[in-house]
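re: ur question from earlier - yeah i can do the single chain one, its not a big deal. heres the input i used so u can compare w yours
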Amino acid sequence: MKKFIALMLAMVLTAALFVGCSKSNTDGSDQGEGKKTDSSQEEVSKEEQLPANFNPTGFPIVKEKITLKMMGPKAAIQVPWDQMDVFKKMEELTNIHFEFDTPPAENYAEKKNLAFASGELPDVFFGRGSVTLEDETTYGAQGVLISLESLIDKYAPNLKKLFEQMPTIRRVITAVDGHIYSLPSGTDLPMNLTTKIWINQKWLDALGLKMPNTTDELYEVLKAFKANDPNGNGKADEIPMSSVKMNDIRGGMLAAFGFVSARFDVKDGKVIYVPMDPAYKEYLAYMNRLYREGLLDNETFSQTEQALTAKGNEGKVGVFTHAGPFLVVKVEENNSYPALPPLTSNVNNKKIWPKNYEVGTTAFAITNMNKYPEATMRWVDYLYSEEGAVLFHNGVEGKHWRWVDVNGEKQWERITPPDKANPEEWRATATPNCGTGTPEIWFKSFAEKQKDPLNAFIRKEVAEKYEPYFTYVFPPVRFTTEEQKQVTAIVSDLESYVSQMEAKFITGVEPLTNWDNYVDTIKKMNVEQLLKLYQTAYDRWNSIK
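and the output i got, formated as tokens:
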């Protein structure tokens, strides 16, 4: 079997090299395979060697239409990407057509890994997380993901301008080997940089309860929600707190116990592995107590996001996590769900709240299957202009959004048709940005011109409740190729084990009396070596200016 795998990898690498070599003949010339070139031909500039079909500036990007294959994670709320208006608009503008391979987000990693293993790759990966930092290290070194800095320098003026405005962008997206293998997605809008937990104010008011500020106070509030019929329908149908596999609410709850990241965090400059920290045990004990007493939805580890939304629309949920309340409850109830403030606990008396970095990587990558890398870079660079960012964030002007005059001030508002009561459902017909981080930088200066009471409420809650306590999550550290091999070898089984045990401890399938055995198992899975690798990468991150 090992020989077979080695043979397959060799075949993939050979194919990659062949494709890489074959690109040198995509210059639109009629040079034959065996025809010799002289030194003067070799000195011809890159611009003169560009395909005759390609326009280095202006639109369309190519004179005759070309077709590229795109792969990215599709969120449940989205329509098929080939039906989205932004891609249709981009095709009209650029003359570049895309064929889409968009597995559901929950199955995307498996399908993406299969594409890499088989060599049946798309021309581009699109969307935040469409590739991983591990993919960049592994497949960048192999040339399967091509380095982009030369293309950026020649064909991405909008992105180059952003490098000057936000110098941290280049720091975040540059691999340890000095190359750039994927492009950024980011924002300086605080409401988009953090998790948000919402609580039903009407239920608090109905029961005469104050906003909780500690985990003990939240526990008492949730008990009251369950026992006292705050929705007033005479049924014991309230769900005090709900989640989808803890992936949404975990970050906010961990903050109460002193962590802003779920796996690796930093204390006094030292990298720690959160799931084996004693304070993490307290988090598990607290969530287990909620689950055991029916205060945490007992369908948390089995339900889908659609199921959570259905419960929210029925007015049954007291506390939940999402980008905005209106994505779970009825739109008209949005402002009845203020943000739950950062909590303190028996092991943490300091209010903190996780803040993601303004810029992330892995939003757009080009593979060595792509015969038109110059045109592709020009296509994606448009998304880093204000016009392109607005298109992919809002949809088409005049159809999905419009400018309006508000007391002499120019603002913009979303256009929502009568049959789409939820504005995000309508936006999800226009752009993958609803559910998938797109390659763009969404600036606060434009976003705050929006005439939208829903987002205005969310911005206000984030500014008042969370911004004063923002603490950056663990940074997107990078590894060398050799380090990455070691990390990958350890993390795969470790992550699976820790995720399974979190669910077992919270649901009570595994009693917390087995905590020491759990920690011993983690240690046997070589976590100390993993911590050394992360410490090295973290120190390297801090050394970059």
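The radius of gyration is 25 Å. not sure if urs matches, ping me
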